[in-house]
Amino acid sequence: MPASPVADEIARRIAQGAGRAPADLVIRGARLLDLVTGDLVPTDIAVCGDTIVGTYGAYAGAQVIEAEGRVAVPGFIDTHLHIESSLITPHEFDRCVLPHGVTTAIWDPHELANVLGPAAFDYALACAAETVMDIRVQLSSCVPATDLETAGARIEAADLLGYRDHARSLGLAEFMNFPGVVQADPGCLAKLAAFAGRHVDGHAPLLSGAGLNAYAAAGIRTDHEATSAAEALEKIRKGMTVLIREGSVSKDLHALAPLLTLATSPFLAFCTDDRNPLDIAEEGHLDHLIRTAIRLGVPPLAAYRAASLSAASAFGLTDRGMIAPGRRADIVLLDDLDACAVARVIAGGRPVEDALFAGRPRTPAPGRGSVKAAPVTAADFAVPAGTGAETPVIGVLPGRIITEHRRLVLPARDGRSACDLAQDVVKVAVVARHGAPGIGRGFVQGFGLTRGAIASSVGHDSHNLCVVGADDTDMALAVNRLIALQGGFVVAADGRILAELALPIAGLMSDLPFEAVRDALHPLREAARALGCTLPEPFLQVAFLPLPVIPHLKITDRGLVDVDRMAILSGW
Predict the structure, then answer these.
(1) 3-state secondary structure 379-403
(2) How far, in Å, are 184, 289, 388 from residue 155 at the CA level?
(3) pTM of the model
């Protein structure tokens, strides 16, 4: 029987690993971080094609990279993120993040799916075949995330089945409807049954006790919503892998770092969830999480395990996560281990350099023209005064997407509730953008605004238009500019636009290079600060105000949602 191409490739790996033939690539003179012992071992690393074939020895190669004593660690794996929340296309994300050592990204296109439906999966899977980094796709499980808001699509179990067996599909993405799982909702059960035996990602903030038992018993294996060490410890003790999140808004690393030790590192990994190009430029990506964890006292071996081997194991990616023969050649060379100072990256056996990104095919992005909202006026943001002395107010917690349900006494004028700048309370509104009418109105505390308005078409998870403001006229101006831009971020004050960024791809992503998006975020932040905003990332903080699947009080296009009672509050 003639040898197959696969057999021929295996034979090449064997010959190169045994030293009978020169390796395709040799990284010479590295210090390899042994993920078993934590030792730094001087060695060459031999690579055949996209696979490591030799370590702990000296090798000859057709191509040689001189490591010059740099530390070699496995490529980093971002275990949960929404690439569209980086505000750039997958191809630009690839070019932006790969130099930071991220060689594998596990993408849940949940935001795109809530706007576009299954077309988001078609786009994500097509792009995953075109990027240099290895992108794996998790199929969005909760579209819409809730029936308390108007989304652009609905995806049922039958819609997911057609994508289940795609080579780049790992399984089912974050199961946000944790109350539905715990209560054995038929729709939830249908999706879980369709993916039985496949990886199912979790999303269960503050869930504990018997509820957590029920959730994990459904076969859900990971969770990225733990915000305290106690919560995370219960989840890993119950067999889940906790994905420690540090994004542009949700910052859980400081709270969870004390839990990350040599003993617990097999049960913890890292993710960014939502991180924009400006934060990546200023701080980094997973390299930022690693160096921050080490600075907080996490042993370097535990941090690098969590960033690679533990992450790979959690998602069944047994072909990567270590620098070892037979594993995928995803290698990061560091100038400094504790600082995670990335000097060079090899992705799938290919040294990462600018030429590697040139000439890649690019699947055209869908979702242009998706903002279908009607223009608004200042009168649309009037809030009738309630009958009680106190008014429900969303309380923002900086660095967290969880909000508080506060009740405050607000001034009333002409039968309408008004902002109270002395209490740092301004208006928030959500304007439906998917073709159906609807405006939800309320109040929010914690932005620091003293004038103007900040508006966003990124509004988790249904991505209606969300605006926060101290002036109704500026709120209307900002929303109408969003409609004209077909999505983006806008800052307005005193009847004029101060700064903006267009996001015309589904109202979520720019079609510009990541450098242009990064640079546009600077004036947006400065304009927000000029309005008095005290939050470090005001635009994504606005974007999370409509998310009604986590405690406690949220705003949607239908009104204020008391998530504790899962009911729309009346009297507005």
Answers:
(1) HHHCEECCCCCCEEEEECCCCCCCC
(2) 18, 33, 40
(3) 0.94
**CA distances (Å), 509 to each of 120, 152, 276, 366, 487, in order?**
13, 16, 11, 10, 9
SS3 call for 278: helix
Tokens of 473: 């006229």
385, two tokens: 């005064």
In 10 A of CB 197, how many CB atoms?
Answer: 7
Secondary structure element (H or E) that encloses residue 121, with its range: helix 119-128
Would you tell me how many other CB atoms lie within 10 Å of the CB of residue 57? 11
Query: What are 317-322's contacts with CB under 8 Å, separation 24+?
Result: 317/77, 317/104, 317/136, 320/74, 320/75, 320/77, 320/103, 320/104, 321/74, 321/77, 322/35, 322/74
- Sheet strand arrangement including 222-223: 76-81, 102-107, 134-139, 169-175, 199-202, 222-223, 241-245, 268-271
- CA gap 28, 62 in Å, rounded: 12
Per-residue pLDDT of the chain (572 residues; tens, 9 = 90+): 567 999 999 999 999 999 999 999 999 999 999 999 999 999 999 999 999 999 999 999 999 999 999 999 999 999 999 999 999 999 999 999 999 999 999 999 999 999 999 999 999 999 999 999 999 999 999 999 888 889 999 999 999 999 999 999 999 999 998 989 999 999 999 999 999 999 999 999 989 999 999 999 999 999 999 999 999 999 999 999 999 999 987 899 999 999 999 999 999 999 999 999 999 999 999 999 999 999 999 999 999 999 999 999 999 999 999 999 999 999 999 999 999 999 999 999 999 999 999 988 999 999 999 999 999 999 999 999 877 789 999 999 887 777 889 999 999 988 999 999 999 999 999 999 999 999 999 999 999 999 999 999 999 889 999 999 999 999 999 999 999 999 999 999 999 999 999 999 999 999 999 999 999 999 999 999 999 999 988 998 899 898 866 557 888 998 888 765 443 332 22
The backbone region for 326, taken as left when phi is positive above 0, alpha when psi lies in -120 to 50, beta otherwise, is left
How distant, in Å, are the alpha carbons of 259, 386, 423, 516, 520 from that of 408?
Answer: 37, 12, 9, 42, 36
H runs (alpha helix) in 449-496: 472-485
Q: Which of 328, 248, 247, 261 is nearest to 294 (CA)?
A: 261
Q: Where are the beta strands (DSSP E) in 49-168?
A: 51-54, 61-66, 71-74, 76-81, 102-107, 134-139
